[in-house]
Design brief:
The chain is built from eight helices and twelve strands. The protein is of the alpha/beta class. The protein has two domains: 122 residues, ATPase, nucleotide binding domain (Nucleotidyltransferase, domain 5, 2-Layer Sandwich), CATH 3.30.420; 156 residues, Nucleotidyltransferase, domain 5. Helix 1 packs across helix 2 and helix 6 crosses helix 7. The longest helix has 25 residues. It is globular, with a radius of gyration of 18 Å.
């Protein structure tokens, strides 16, 4: 039995993945502790695993983590959604509290692997997944292999430098997820309009007030620039959008308009942006697959 965990800024999800049937079962969720402190999050994670396994033996646990991870997949180097996790030895700490073998991977990389198994990228060899949630994550598959880079930190579109002076949680300025992402949009709306709500609910204001349209247009512009840049760099068969904000009505139609502004003409007729077919199951499947791969000595 393999357990996949999706560690989100707002929600932690755990589930059993049956590799033979390709089905996710026993799904359990819990709110991410508001402090997002390592000890509190690990405690919540342990409770979830206990609920999911219900005393049954498991091969191991795969954890998809938002942020940059070291090449050895042992430490979280920096995670804008978990600011206290800098250089945090997640693999060791999780194995200590769970008493199980743990594999750690970037959450969007897990998402990309899941979509390649049975989702919107099934049968593809070259594709990019954007996870649109608390921030912007990304997973890049080239020639059928997950791209991790020499230092293990490849595929971070949320940190594309799109301009501006807004500080990013990673410590730099002007990154895409300072404008697009649940945390960013909610923060900007509160500061500029005094309205406090979830990003999904705030989307309705795009058609109801000038400030709302401007904020969302700036968010879409930042994401459009990022997608166009990624297409220019990797020439993927498709760009797949997942995460909570991928459920925005008519998102693909809206984004196409912004992406085409920045996309070189040879790609105009090739542009293929699609919504995840697996939704929240994708990162769980991918995280569980990481466990299986590493148990068999594969990267």
């Amino acid at each position: 039995m393999l357990i996949g965990i999706d560690l989100g800024g707002h929600t932690i999800t755990a589930a059993i993945f049956d590799a033979e049937s390709g089905v996710v079962t026993g799904r359990q969720e819990a709110p991410t502790p508001r402090t997002r402190e390592p000890e509190a999050v690990l405690g919540a994670l342990a409770q979830l695993v206990e609920r999911v396994t219900a005393g049954r033996a498991t091969t191991g646990v795969g954890i998809g983590v938002p942020g940059m991870i070291d090449a050895a997949r042992e430490r979280v180097l920096v995670s804008p959604n978990f600011p206290l996790w800098k250089n945090f030895p997640l693999k060791r700490k999780a194995e200590e509290i769970l008493g199980l073998s743990v594999a750690v991977e970037n959450d969007a990389n897990c998402y990309a692997l899941g979509e390649g198994v049975s989702g919107a990228a099934k049968g593809m060899t070259d594709y990019v997944v954007f996870t649109l949630g608390t921030g912007i994550g990304g997973g890049v598959v080239c020639g059928g292999n997950l791209l991790r880079g020499f230092h293990g930190m490849a595929g971070e579109p949320g940190h594309a430098a799109v301009g501006g002076e807004l500080p990013c949680g990673c410590g730099a300025k002007g990154h895409a997820e300072t404008l697009f992402g649940a945390d960013a949009i909610e923060k900007i709306f509160l500061k500029e309009t005094g309205i406090k709500d979830t990003a999904k609910n705030l989307y309705a204001l795009r058609s109801e007030c000038l400030a709302g349209r401007r904020i969302w247009d700036e968010a879409f512009d930042a994401l459009g620039r990022t997608i166009a840049t990624v297409i220019h760099l990797f020439d993927p068969q498709a760009v797949i959008l997942g995460g909570g904000l991928s459920n925005i009505p008519d998102l693909v139609d809206e984004l196409n308009l912004f992406v085409l502004r920045y996309l070189a003409s040879p790609w105009h007729d090739l542009l293929d942006i699609r919504i995840s077919a697996l939704g929240p199951d994708a990162p769980l499947i991918g995280a569980a697959m990481i466990v299986s791969k590493r148990a068999n000595g594969k990267p």
